[in-house]
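I have a small job for you when you get a moment. Can you supply me with one protein entry, sequence and fold together? It will help me judge whether the discrete encoding reads sensibly. Write everything out right here, beneath this request:
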Amino acid sequence: MGLRLGDTAPDFTCETTKGRLSLHAYKANSWCILFSHPEDFTPVCTTELGAVARLQSQFDSRNVKVIGLSCSSLSDHEAWIADINETQNCTVQFPIIADPTREIATLYDMLDHQDVTNIDARGMPLTVRAVFILDPANKVRLTLTYPASCGRNFAEILRVVDSLMLTDARKVATPADWVVGQDVIVHNSVQGSEAEKLFPGFRTVKPYLRYTSI
């Protein structure tokens, strides 16, 4: 069975483009985005890692650690980074895990069981485009799985981090398509005088749908 929301993310030690590291020690008390891509020197993956690299300052400002993973070798990762930087107008700063044995991919249930073309030269399955958002307590707070054919929207993943941080700190939820600075929803657990105290002037559309600014 794969990881569920609220599970503790399994720790592991691995080789990366930034040296040997352990996941829990690397992220320490930070939020973390762990994401896999199928293979190095492939077009969609190149654009994805470039997108993450261009968002690096956004992740840093939120104290979010980012770490990538594929089943390719460390030497391939290191050579490929030069191509990513060149073609995507970026500088890759985050570590990329080398998992040629698929030990971590198996631990996190990242391997592709659906696309028969998503295999390496030996015919072994590669990883899908998986995403795990981990909180400072190492709990899994979001999981996403995209097929190999579809690149991810990392601005959306960053938006989810913003929502999780906010809703952990305040008794609110975020509506569809919400971005930082927009009104949020007063959580349904907050009623009566507590709602007035916490969110003075909140706007009621229906008894179950109340908006407030933060």
Observations:
- DSSP finds seven helices and eleven strands in the chain.
- The mean pLDDT is 92.
- The CA atoms of residues 36 and 69 lie 4 Å apart.
